[in-house]
Amino acid sequence: MSATGAQFDAGQLREVLARHLPMYRWKVPSYQRVMLESLCAVWLGRHGRLLDVGGGTGVIAEAIARLLPVDWVEAVDLVDRFCPGLSVRTQAYDGRHLPFADKSFDAATLNNVLHHVPRSERVALLTEIRRVVDGPLYIKDHLAGSALDHARLTVLDALGNVPFSGMVKADYLTQSEWDEITTKSGWRLTGQAPSAAYRSGIMAAAFPNRLEITLRFEPA
Hints:
Blueprint: H1 10-18, H2 30-42, E1 47-53, H3 59-67, E2 70-77, E3 89-92, E4 107-111, H4 119-132, E5 137-142, H5 147-161, H6 175-184, E6 187-192, H7 201-206, E7 212-219
Parallel strand pairs: 1-2, 1-4, 2-3, 4-5
Antiparallel strand pairs: 5-7, 6-7
């Protein structure tokens, strides 16, 4: 069963994030709240061990560990810029070979990561995740349908990543590209979260919420 309909109190999430990123002592994590709710909309039951690939600062992995139905979370990324004091295990890796045995995890997440991976390496990354995960892969990312969408997403990435020294260079996926890499890497799409209200008002007009997607892949 999925965790459809789960909602998170912004204050509870803010408390988790603020322990590691002081800016959340005053900033409401509305984007992160909607992202976690969208993950819940496609989540399947409870997972024992979950791998967060491209974990960045590690705070989203921390929030997943504390707020979603999972027993253990580990995060990896190309560069160790993880916040100190996290309860989840973290490590840097080479970007090609995940340092785990086959089927070490019950599930994995890729949160706003795949559009930063070079096109030539995306299938290899998803295939490598398929090797170490014996279960679903949850992906929060973007869908670009036009040149204007690419420009919009470039601005959004700069706004979201620059404050955390995150990667800004990106190449956003079209629907056909999503379909292609899914098939070639041994996954199949089995769930997609409904469109969610990441932004409202003027921001939603400038950066439509349809640019945000949350998917569940399962082994083909």
